[in-house]
UniProtKB/TrEMBL annotation:
Residue ranges occupied by any RCK C-terminal domain in the UniProt entry: 137-218
Pfam families, per database record: TrkA_C, TrkA_N
Protein's name in the database: Trk system potassium uptake protein TrkA
Keywords: Ion transport, NAD, Potassium, Potassium transport, Transport
Source organism superkingdom: Bacteria
UniProt xrefs under InterPro entries: K_uptake_TrkA (IPR006036), NAD(P)-bd_dom_sf (IPR036291), RCK_C (IPR006037), RCK_C_sf (IPR036721), RCK_N (IPR003148), Trk_Ktr_HKT_K-transport (IPR050721)
SUPFAM superfamilies registered for this protein in UniProt: NAD(P)-binding Rossmann-fold domains, TrkA C-terminal domain-like
Domain RCK N-terminal as annotated: residue spans: 1-117
């Protein structure tokens, strides 16, 4: 897979290293000579250019990329790059870094963003996931916000405790994809029984999350 990463800072370099370790073809773009250094990430290709200029993106052969990662520290740059990647070069997949959570609402398909990654939002979600019981925690969005990865920790008073997963009518467009129990993760089967303390992970569309929360928060009578 060919991946073009704009922004050769700590985030971009870390992503590049991970992808290179998995034998992907990686090109890093940055307009700073200091940021680009062959000795920092052996195996990566480098291009000194402005990620918002069509000429530079053409030089990067963006049309040949499978994924473009907008990882700069500037939200405007990341949005413009995502839009150009989609509209001018037909890149199948764009992943964009959100630096300021206040700008998160902009990172959708109107700007060519397939997946938006907000580090502050993700850290907040992980903190909530670690301490929240009985609440639905939004971990990540997929497919331009049309689906979200949600986590719910089952309270001991929940109506779901001792229920077979196959007997539970989850809302439409909602799938239970994983369960963590006693530090062990497993893919749930219809015959598995929910226990208090289980961490349930769902993929759900945004318009079904209220119905999902109502189901999960129902208490045993």
């Amino acid at each position: 897979m060919r991946v073009v990463i704009a922004g050769a800072g700590s985030v971009g370099r870390s992503v590049a290293r991970e992808l290179l370790d998995k034998n992907h073809d990686v090109l890093l773009i940055d307009q700073s000579k200091e940021a680009l250094g062959h000795e920092k990430i052996p195996g990566a290709q480098w291009l000194l250019s402005d990620a918002c200029e069509l000429s530079g993106l053409g030089e990067a052969h963006l049309e040949e990329a499978d994924v473009v990662v907008a990882a700069t520290g500037d939200d405007k740059t990341n949005l413009v790059l995502s839009l150009l990647a989609k509209t001018e070069f037909g890149v199948p997949r764009t992943v964009s870094r959100v630096n300021n959570p206040k700008n998160e609402w902009l990172f959708d398909d109107n700007w060519g963003v397939d997946v938006a990654v907000s580090t502050p939002r993700l850290m907040t979600a992980l903190v909530e996931e670690a301490v929240e019981v009985g609440g639905l925690v939004h971990l990540m969005s997929f497919e331009r916000g049309q689906a979200g990865l949600m986590e719910f920790t089952v309270n001991e008073t929940s109506e779901l405790v001792a229920s077979r997963i196959g007997s539970i009518s989850f809302p439409v467009d909602t799938v239970l994809v994983a369960v963590i129990r006693n530090a062990r993760a497993f893919a749930p089967s219809p015959d598995d029984v929910i226990e208090a303390g289980d961490e349930l992970f769902f993929l759900s569309s945004p318009d079904q999350q209220s119905a999902l929360l109502s189901l999960l928060q129902a208490t045993a009578k």
